[in-house]
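From the shared-data thread, chain only:
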Amino acid sequence: MGQNQGHHGASAVVLVADDEPMTRLLAVKALQKAGFETVEATDGREAISFFDRHLPDIVMLDVMMPVMDGFSACVEIRRHPNGKLTPVLMVTGLDDLDSIHRAYEAGATDFVTKPINWLILGHRVRYMLRASRSVEALQRSEAKNRALLNAVPDLMLRIGRTGELLEFKEAKTFQGFALKEEDIGRVVSEILPIEMAHEVIGSVEKVLETGDIQVLEHRFMENGSARTCESRIGPSGQDEALAIVRDITARKAAEKALRDSEERYALAAQGANDGLWDWNLLTNEIHFSSRWKAMLGCGDGDVGNTPEDWLSRIHEDDIDRVRLELNAHMTGVSPPFESEHRLRHNDGTYRWMHSRGLAVRDSKGTPYRMAGSQTDITERKNLSEQLLHDAFFDSLTKLPNRALFMDRLGHAVARGKRLDSHRFAVLFLDLDRFKLINDSLGT
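Structure, as tokens:
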């Protein structure tokens, strides 16, 4: 159809082709009076040239013209890329059926016989334009719907109330049912797996009664392998429903693999007795596991999901070091993050924790996620400190023992060798009869 329709306020353009000057003049005056713009041609060949130049919205062709008659010109217009939907009104002085038949065969939209009623010509042309635009809009809508349907990779079935197959569109992703044109009109129980067919027919009845979409899952065997399909069935008319059937075998396998993975992860986490954390560096949110919170005497609702909910609990003597360790790992200086620090328990005391983590990086090396675990090492730390204390202090008097004395003396000697200004002396005291106590009770 032409490009000059009044979509943007411009008048529609009519191409008038007639070799009789008076007829052409009267037609032009009548059309201009009706509000149309006009382009004039004196023969069929000129009409083709003007059509290509002006792209009119409607063409009015006289049948009998020199050089090229109206029939041939109409055929050429229909071959033009922009002429397939353009309305063509054929004007003939012949009232025989053969001429009318030839006009329609050539692609004419309508015809009018001479003498023409000039008073109603504008109304007739306007009606043809309106009808043509409606047809064009319908064709565009149908083309869009076909494109949408073709973009859907699933099997589509139109099913009647009694279960007969009315129409189908093959699936692009799988050929599980191998439907043929001969299957149209047959009951779906003769085409689909019997259990699936009964479920579909039952759902069609529910859909037509309630108007609600039904969703089903079907399992069947194909070439010795188990497959799963999902059907979504909704109303598409008074006595028919549309079923969209999708192969979800791969999705079901992925969901099962995900459930198995999550179960293994949960069991591993419980078995390790560690607290877990997962830090989304893009949103700056951290997920803390229930075990992580329980280590600090907290319930699930007692700890938020921000980094400060963790860092604010770290002992003031440790926080700067922990931040440096985190930054070193995120910038790639240290391969893993590993830190021992004190975290404040809900009862106000501090517990020693061993935290480990690893960042996930994008193709540019920028970290976008970091996850790790936390182990309570308070008992180990206390035991280590106790062993260190016992190694250098007397268990009876709680005073520094000989090992600590010799260690400090060694430091003093070494310092005296380095610094001439450093002087020191060793004072030896002997207590009478203290050897008996030392040998029996001391170390």
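The CA atoms of residues 417 and 423 lie 10 Å apart.
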